[in-house]
Write a structure and sequence with these properties.
Layout lengths: L1 E5 L4 E5 L3 H20 L4 H19 L4 H8 L7 H8 E7 L11 E8 L2 E8 L5 H6 L7 H16 L4 E7 L6 H5 L2 H12 L6 E10 H5 L6 E5 L3 E3 L3 H9 L5 H8 L3 H6 L5 E3 L10 H20 L3 H13 L3 H6 L3
Parallel strand pairs: 5-6, 6-7, 7-8, 7-9, 8-10
Antiparallel strand pairs: 1-2, 3-4, 4-5
Helix pairs in contact: 1-2, 3-11, 4-13, 6-8, 10-11
C-alpha cells in the first residue's frame, strides 16, 4: 500500500514501511510553509532534516525484506519503459505487429540509439494511469506480442544490430484467449530462438520479472536487474495461493522464492545488479536511467568485440549452468 502526501511541488507516495520518512518530509514541508509566512530562513533546520532523511532511507533500504523489495518494484512512481525510451533512447522508431494476429501494447519494439550504440529495444510496458494500464493489459503480454518481439529481434539479427530487452511484467496474460492462441508455445519458441540469435543480447529486469512472461524476452548474453527489482518463477501472491491457499501469505512466499537481486546474484542466476539511487528508482528517475544506460553502453562494447560463435557458445553454457549453484549449495 502507498500513501500520498501533497506538497507544493509534487505528490510523494510512501510505502507502508516508510513511516519515519513521512514524518521527516512533513516537518520539512511545514518549515517551507512557515518560511513563507514569517520570512525567516530555516535552511539550517531543513539541512538537519535532510541529513536525518538520508540516514533513515539508508537504514530502511539497506535492510529491506523480500516482500518489501516486491513493493518497491511495484511502486506506482517507479520508472516504466516509457521513461527509459524518453530519457535513454534517441530516435526511437516503433515497429508494430506479429505479421499474423495483431500488435498489443504490453510489449513495445523498435530501433533506437543508446549512447553511440544502435540497438533493437524490446520492452514490457505496464502503463502509468488506469486508462493506459488497461490498454497495456497491466503489463501482461498476449502470445502475439511475444511473436512480435521475436519477429523484430530476427530483423535486428538480419542487420547485425544488438538487442536490449527491458523486463517489467507480473507475468504473461493467463486468459483463455491467450491460451487458445498458443501462449506457452510462443514463450517456448522465444526461449529457443533467442538462445541462438547471432547478435549480442542484454536483458534487464527494471521492475517486476514474473514467471514465463519475463522469460519470454529474457534470454541473452547478460541478464541483469535493478537493485530493487525482483525476478521469480511466480509472483509471491500466486505462490502463496498454491502453497497455503491464502494470498495474504505473500510475504512468506517472497522469503522462500529468493527473488531479490542480492539472492539471485549469489545464486548465479543474474550476472550483475545495477544500483538504484537512495530510496529506490522512483525517487530519482534521472539517475536510474543514467545507471542503466551506462551499463548497456559499457557492456555492449565488450560483447561486440566477441566473435559470434564464441558469444553463442558462452550463451549456451550460461543457460545450461542455471541452477548449478543451487544444487551445489544444497539450496532448495
Amino acid at each position: 500500500m502507498t500513501k500520498k502526501i501533497s506538497t507544493e511541488t509534487e505528490n510523494v507516495q510512501y510505502l507502508d514501511f516508510e513511516k519515519p520518512i513521512v514524518e521527516i518530509d512533513k516537518a520539512m514541508e511545514q518549515l517551507r510553509q512557515q518560511s513563507k509566512i514569517d520570512g525567516k530562513d530555516y535552511s539550517k533546520e531543513t539541512l538537519d532534516f535532510q541529513r536525518k532523511q538520508v540516514e533513515e532511507l539508508k537504514a530502511i533500504y539497506d535492510n529491506l525484506t523480500p516482500w518489501q523489495t516486491v513493493q518497491v518494484a511495484r511502486h506506482p512512481q517507479r520508472p516504466l519503459l516509457t521513461e527509459y525510451l524518453n530519457h535513454m533512447v534517441k530516435d526511437f522508431k516503433e515497429l508494430h505487429g506479429d505479421r499474423s494476429f495483431g500488435d498489443g501494447r504490453a510489449i513495445i519494439t523498435g530501433f533506437g540509439q543508446i549512447g553511440h550504440e544502435k540497438v533493437m529495444i524490446v520492452g514490457q510496458n505496464k502503463g502509468r494511469d488506469i486508462k493506459e494500464k488497461i490498454k497495456c493489459n497491466f503489463g501482461c503480454p498476449n502470445p502475439e506480442e511475444y511473436r512480435k518481439a521475436l519477429v523484430k529481434m530476427k530483423l535486428a539479427e538480419k542487420f547485425g544490430i544488438p538487442i536490449v530487452t527491458l523486463i517489467d511484467t507480473p507475468g504473461a496474460y493467463p486468459g483463455i484467449g491467450a491460451e487458445e492462441r498458443g501462449q506457452a508455445q510462443a514463450i517456448a519458441v522465444n526461449l529457443m530462438e533467442m538462445s541462438r540469435l547471432k547478435v549480442p543480447i542484454i536483458c534487464i529486469v527494471i521492475g517486476e520479472g514474473g514467471s514465463g512472461g519475463a522469460l519470454g524476452i529474457g534470454v541473452g548474453d547478460r541478464l541483469v536487474m535493478l537493485q530493487y527489482a525482483y525476478y521469480s518463477v511466480i509472483s509471491p501472491e500466486g505462490c502463496a495461493a498454491i502453497l497455503w491457499r491464502d494470498g495474504a501469505k505473500a510475504s512468506l512466499a517472497a522469503d522462500a522464492l529468493k527473488l531479490t537481486s542480492k539472492d539471485l546474484l549469489r545464486l548465479g542466476l543474474v550476472d550483475h545488479v545495477i544500483e538504484e539511487p537512495l530510496g529506490g528508482a522512483h525517487r530519482n528517475i534521472h539517475d536510474t536511467v543514467f545507471n542503466v544506460e551506462q551499463y548497456i553502453t559499457t557492456t555492449l562494447r565488450g560483447l561486440k568485440r566477441t566473435k559470434i560463435d564464441t558469444l553463442l557458445e558462452h550463451r549456451y553454457k550460461r543457460l545450461r549452468s542455471i541452477g548449478s549453484a543451487t544444487v551445489e549449495s544444497g539450496t532448495k
